[in-house]
Amino acid sequence: MNTTEAIKKLWKEAFGDSDEFIEQFMECYHTPDRALFIENEDRVLSMLHILPFEMNGKSVGYMYGVATAYEERGKGHASKLIEQAIEIARERGFHALVTIPADEKLRLYYERFGFKGGYRTLFEMPDNFDPGTGNSESDLLSILPLREIVLPETGSQVRLKWNG
């Protein structure tokens, strides 16, 4: 199995998204330089993507599709990838790395890396693709500042405009 197919398989396992959604993401937004993963032979054990967006005129990396195979959880794979993503985002000159944790437990997990927030999020995508949770009411953005950036007021809405 090639890496692209292995990413699709883990995505399906972790998120349960439709094949059509996964194909749309892979075809329109996935590129090798945006994907970080840990693999073992022909299997992706853990992954994430760093997608280019703009927030208040500043470039940010959106950490998306963070997933670890069920039986590999608790082994530090995702933490290792997040630390890599932070370094890559700095190298690429992003002002911040942002993500939308799926729940409160994950929000607290991301806080350990310095992410702050809980900002309501509106995506501006060229094809109305929804890279959030699928429920805009629960799309609460967490932000890790990497360069000088003014954080939005608590509870305010943040617009993320596709910059790819």
Structure write-up:
This protein has a single domain, classed as Gcn5-related N-acetyltransferase (GNAT) (Aminopeptidase). It is globular, with a radius of gyration of 15 Å. A 6-stranded mixed beta barrel has the order 2-3-4-6-5-7. The chain is built from 4 helices and 7 strands. The mean pLDDT is 92. By secondary structure, it is α+β, with helices and mostly antiparallel strands. A hairpin with a 2-residue loop joins strand 2 and strand 3. The two termini are 28 Å apart.
What would you say about this model in short?
The chain has one domain: Gcn5-related N-acetyltransferase (GNAT) (Aminopeptidase), CATH 3.40.630.
Secondary structure elements and their pairing?
Blueprint: H1 3-15, H2 19-28, E1 35-40, E2 43-55, E3 58-68, H3 77-91, E4 96-99, H4 104-111, E5 116-124, E6 140-145, E7 157-162
- Low-pLDDT runs of 5+ residues are none
Question: What is the gyration radius calculated from CA atoms?
Answer: 15 Å
How many strand units?
A: 7
The strand line-up of the biggest sheet is: 2-3-4-6-5-7
Please tell me the CATH architecture by its name. Answer: 3-Layer(aba) Sandwich
Number of helices: 4
The gross shape turns out to be globular
- The secondary-structure element order is HHEEEHEHEEE
Could you list some keywords that capture this structure?
single chain, 164 residues, alpha+beta, Aminopeptidase, six-stranded mixed beta barrel, 7 strands, globular
